[in-house]
Specification:
about 40% strand; 4-stranded antiparallel sheet; 3-stranded antiparallel sheet; about 20% helix; alpha+beta; about 160 residues
Length: about 160
């Protein structure tokens, strides 16, 4: 992969579905069925970064700023200045939905304290459970119980 290239070297079977330049940084962005790739800066070790759609919680659009924000499950967000083109937003939302098998509230004492999601990377049979808790630490027992309940109710 070349930092100066407008497209990353994609894994076998993957192809670009959408792409363009972030107008704030002038770096390229390429979206595929499995992930979004965004170009790093010239001085960075990795010229391209990959963010799998199964690791994105949601895609937000700020029309006033013409910004697309991909909110990650475990870490920093990716914000792109993307004027006049909502195609990447539509693709992102479709791919996030395609990798989300289930999303259920996690309750403690009748109050929702977080959300449990079952996510599956595109092209994989593996299910990954992701917990987003709002400032509350769940015990291993509570988490195991929530996953068991979700599996029984959903058949996953």
């Amino acid at each position: 992969m070349d930092a100066g290239s407008s497209c990353p070297v994609l894994p076998r079977g993957e192809r670009a579905l959408a792409g363009g330049r972030d107008t704030a940084t002038n770096r390229y962005v390429v979206a595929t069925r499995n992930a979004v790739y965004h170009q790093g800066f010239r001085w960075e070790f990795e010229p391209w970064r990959r963010l799998g759609w199964d690791r994105v919680e949601r895609a937000d659009w700020d029309a006033g700023r013409a910004e697309l924000t991909l909110v990650g499950l475990e870490g920093p967000h990716l914000t792109l200045r993307w004027p006049g083109n909502r195609g990447l937003l539509d693709l992102a939302r479709e791919r996030i939905a395609a990798t989300t098998l289930l999303r259920v509230p996690v309750c403690r004492a009748g109050q929702t304290v977080g959300w449990l999601s079952a996510r599956r990377p595109a092209g994989s049979g593996d299910v990954r459970w992701v917990l987003r808790a709002a400032g509350v630490e769940l015990t291993d027992e509570e988490l195991a119980r929530a996953i068991r309940q979700a599996r029984v109710q959903s058949g996953i």
